[in-house]
Amino acid sequence: MKPPVDHLRISSLGKDQLIKLKRQTGIEHWNILCRWAFCVSLREKSHPPTIQAGSESGVEMSWKVFAGEYSDVFSGLILQRARHEGVELATEELSQCLRSHIHRGLGYLASGTDIRNIGNFIERWSPKT
Predict the structure, then answer these.
(1) Were 71 and a residue from 10, 28, 61, 67 both cysteine, which residue would form a disulfide, CB within 3.0 to 4.6 Å?
(2) How far is CA 112 from CA 3, 19, 80, 127, in A?
(3) Per-residue confidence of the chain (129 residues) as pLDDT tens digits?
(4) 8: left (phi > 0), else alpha (psi -120 to 50), else beta?
(5) Are 67 and 34 in contact (CB under 8 A)?
(6) Is the pTM of this model over 0.70?
(7) Cβ(51)–Cβ(127) below 8 Å
């Protein structure tokens, strides 16, 4: 499956949230945290707020780095969600949809003060059965 975007841009606020999450959880790689953020945002039925791409310095990563071996899974998830939200499947609109979900998820993950380690993180954000 063709990747929906070539690169992701995370804002400076998102970068600050990633730094906080890395410190709290010990998860070294930002792409892993961005994957979690994306999935956490997808749990919400509502549309995420639109995050405009700016010239601020943040984080940029390629689709390959973000999705890794799960490229087809993440491609399918963003395409399905974009269709559900009525987003045009053009590259720019998909990029905006993905960016908005990652930023909303980072906000969720970085909120609160109960996360002190990876165990707290997983306990808080893993799906309940």
Answers:
(1) 67
(2) 33, 15, 30, 18
(3) 788 889 998 999 999 999 999 988 888 999 999 999 999 899 888 999 887 766 567 889 999 999 999 999 999 999 999 999 888 887 788 888 999 999 999 998 898 766 666 676 677 667 665
(4) beta
(5) no
(6) yes
(7) no
Q: Tell me if 113 sits within 8 A of 44, measured CB to CB.
A: no
In a domain, 2, yes or no: no
Range of the domain at 75: 7-125
- Buried b / exposed e along 90-124 (16+ C-beta atoms within 10 A): eeeebbbbbbbbbbbbbbbbbeeeebeeeeebeee
End-to-end CA distance of the chain: 31
User: Is residue 68 in some structural domain?
Assistant: yes
Which tokens sit at 67?
């999705």
- Six token digits for residue 2: 């063709």
Among 32, 31, 42, 28, CA closest to 7:
31
Domain count, the chain: 1
Q: What is the DSSP letter of 69?
A: G
